Amino acid sequence: MKFAADASLDSGATFPACAMYDLHCHLLPAIDDGPVNLATALEMARMAVADGITTVACTPHIYPGVYDNDAVGIRSAIARFQIELEARDIELVLVEGADVHLAPNLIDGIRAGRIATLAGSRYLLLEPPHHVAPPRFEESVFELMTQGIVPVITHPERLSWVDSHFDVFTRLAARGAWMQITAGSLTGRFGSRPRNAAERFVGDGMCMILATDAHHPRRRPPLLAEARDAAARIVGDGEATHMVLTRPLGIVKDVPPSSLPPALSFDGDRAQSRDRDATGGLISRFLGRWSRA
């Protein structure tokens, strides 16, 4: 199975050090449980830009029988919304994606092009059930990985069963699955239990990216900077930047996981954060390499 990054991003563009990529966001209007109309979606887009987000993966649910979206429809909705943004001088780049629920024949759907991966890459945003640990969850994730797909498991810290199954996520992370922690979890917007779990994922070096999972400008806002700062207090500035820029940019560019910075635990990043210049140089080299791709 071969994946290719969005060619429109291979333009030689440079990226400011303060830029952030949000790769889980329900921004498209009237397509799932995100914004109900264009005005609300535009309000969210303006909030994202004001927060320092430069690129958003529009990731509506693909949940058979509930939200029957597919890659073709998502790309069409993104194209329409990008036109609306440009008409209003809202400087936000949109790429495709989907919040994909576990379902039978998922691999067949990806192969056939019905299921959208993140920016057309090998990385798939995968949402587990919220309240029940699914049977054969580990096996299902590993099956995706055998097909060259990198599952990015969404908001594990918010699952009601995460505390009793934390070892499952530890094993998955050790085998190469990625974990995406919700920005609002890390800042306490979802309460103390998700916050504690989010801090554990970050502190244990099991959070590869942060994302907003935004749905609404007030109830579920597209704010990422505050979570980056919260992560920095746990693992240092360098690793926090990797969570919102380096690795998300790598996903958009379809860079293999082995070529991206590994997640760092608290002790490992303390040494890195003492040398800010070295960290900045590392990121500059990554950005320069990808911008020339």
Automatic annotation (TrEMBL):
Its UniProt entry gives the catalysed reaction(s) as: O-phospho-L-tyrosyl-[protein] + H2O = L-tyrosyl-[protein] + phosphate
Question: What EC identifiers does the entry list?
Answer: 3.1.3.48
Gene3D superfamilies xrefs: Metal-dependent hydrolases
Protein name (record) = protein-tyrosine-phosphatase
Family recorded in the similarity comment: Belongs to the metallo-dependent hydrolases superfamily. CpsB/CapC family.
**Top-level enzyme category:** hydrolase
Q: Out of the domains of life, which is the source?
A: Bacteria
Swiss-Prot/TrEMBL keywords: Hydrolase
Entries under Pfam families matching the protein: CpsB_CapC
The answer, when asked if Hydrolase is one of the entry's keywords, is: yes
